[in-house]
User: What shape does this take?
Amino acid sequence: MRRSKQNGGPALPTWLPWVILVAAVVLFVWHSSSSAFLQDDSFITYRYARNVVRGLGPVFNPGERTEGYTNFLWMMLLALLGIIGLPFSAIIPLSQVIGVLCGVGIIIFFFLFVRRHTRGPPALACFATLILSSNGAFAYWCVSGMETAFFTLFLASAFWFYARDSSPRSLLAASALLGLSALARPEGALFMAVFGLHYFLRAMFPKRGFFTARHLSRFALLVLPFVALVLPLYVWRLSYYGYLFPNTYYAKTGASLAYLKAGIDYLVNFHKAYGIWGIGFIVPVVFLAVRRRLRLSEPLSLALLAVLVHTLYIVWVGGDVLRIYRFFVPVLFLFYLLVSEGIWQLPLPRTLNFLILVGLMPLTFIGPLTSPRTVHADILRNLRLEGGLVKKMSATGRWFNRHLGEDDWFGCTTIGAVSWHADRNMVDMLGLTDANIAHNPENILEAEWHWKERNYNTAYVLGLKPRFLYFSTGIKPSAEAERALFLRPQFRRGYYACPVTVVDASEGRTAQFVETVYRRRADADSIPLEPVAQPTGFINLYLDGINFLRVGTDTAIKLFRRCIEQAPPDFGYPFEWLGQVYQSQGRTDLAVENYKEAVRRNDRCITSHISLAGIYADRKQTDRAVEHLRKVVAYAPEYHEGYANLSALLGQSGNHAAAETVLVAAVEYLPEIPDFLLRLGWTRYQLGKLAQAESDVGRYLALRPNDRSALGLRDEIRRRRAPAADPAPDRGRVPRT
Assistant: This one.
């Protein structure tokens, strides 16, 4: 067995580093597969790629040239897979596999670099790859379906070639790989600048002179391939989209103290999670500097320069709107390179250095120094939240696909999975995929921007006449683009919060839930767009009132009352919320009073009608309950509970003919809910329409063949239809549904 002596220490097997590499790859593959999920934003790229495959070009909506993606090369790779015949049902999971493979490639380049340049024991120094594999953010974003790992692989390979030597071949390879990184993400140009700056400093400072002809020629080798790859993209972008940068740059970027604060918070939280409050990074770097490992002739100087410049960039742009430190993933391999090499420079016995390195592995995996939960727990939580969001938005998108025509529009602020599955014209109300909003924002809220997606244009959005406007938080307007809509009379009176029943059977089993969308009224065109409501603060009070319901109802009530004092007279929703608060407290008379005021101000406050119907039904005031339920059915024709409650109330009062009419409409509007077929069959059985009743029950049994209640009802109907019919049935019993 061959052994190598480790810097004066005991000889170790030469195969040990390769065992460590295999272990790192296995750990990473397990880590990423256990974190497998699809980020909602990845569906934006899928939609662009699908339109390329369809021959529509790289557009979000057909005919609209807006560059709402920032990953040209990644998007075109996915489109190419579609062009050669792969369906997107295969491309989407394949994009996750490619991401994991890119992660493996990053680990390999990291391993090779450590083997070549470490000052620690080469066999043991490779343990740093296990720390990278333990990083939850690295595994999380590699498998997310996004371009993060794809981009980082180009950076890691460029770093490897640049640090290997200064030969023309290495410089050409580094430049080409940096060019590919810039095609994968715009930040690739920033890293090209870092490499160029490092080359310039390395050539200048040791001799304190100017570039020689040799330096200039080598510098050209570092720059020209990059320019040859990237310049055509910018020329094409300008000619095709009309702008020099992606649309998201105009929709998101900005400079303010709020951005800097958010960026600093993002940096601090990252170092809490993975840098032991910064100590785990600063101390090793200090020892690298003391031991002169950060001289410009050392590759670690480039690593430090890249980490620092990228960190300043992250702070400047305000961090990331997505969780789990995505923006730091491209420099994680450099981060751990500096940390691990710094640990080997600590004035300690090699064994203790190695034990510190080993101790970083569980610390990195768990991240115990953050609060209120560990990094690992936060990742698991985010996987559940993001998975639930994508599942809900996907089902709602399929609902939009069924209920919108090809020329119809809808609007949304969380645009990934819902736009992919809807496959209809969609206006992104934040402007990320809409040039009009990104370049012509309104400022009617008269408030500070709360986050990066600061742009909106309500006049433009309403001018598209979208049939539905969808907030990912349901009825609650969270984003500025959502809240600003309520300042327009055309939205307050021309749209209303409408519950819809979403039935989804895409995953092999049927899921049913109620979602709220803002539905456009038929007479919305007759409602003026102006004037903007003043003062505008009422909508922030409304949002605060909803949020405070989770904390304490007393504060929420005060906020809703203050909102009412400032709000326009047609704004009924605060009264609706007050009604729900009072009803939950058992103060029914106050609840009724507020519900009535809500529908007086806006007759399409559907929750108020539902609640009033329930209260009146409990009070045996059937006619009044029926009146409100009829409005629910009229205003929300895709909401199953309106039909169910109205038909049940009519049936209980003996009005089976009216119940039949309601249930026929329910079957028409909600054919995916078979329970209405059984209810209709029972109602027609009561009316003596036996042939129709048997047909309805038969259609139900075709979907649910083992339902005992339906089988019993079918047998009863057949007995009655027989020549010697049994006595009339008990008309008071209702089948189980």
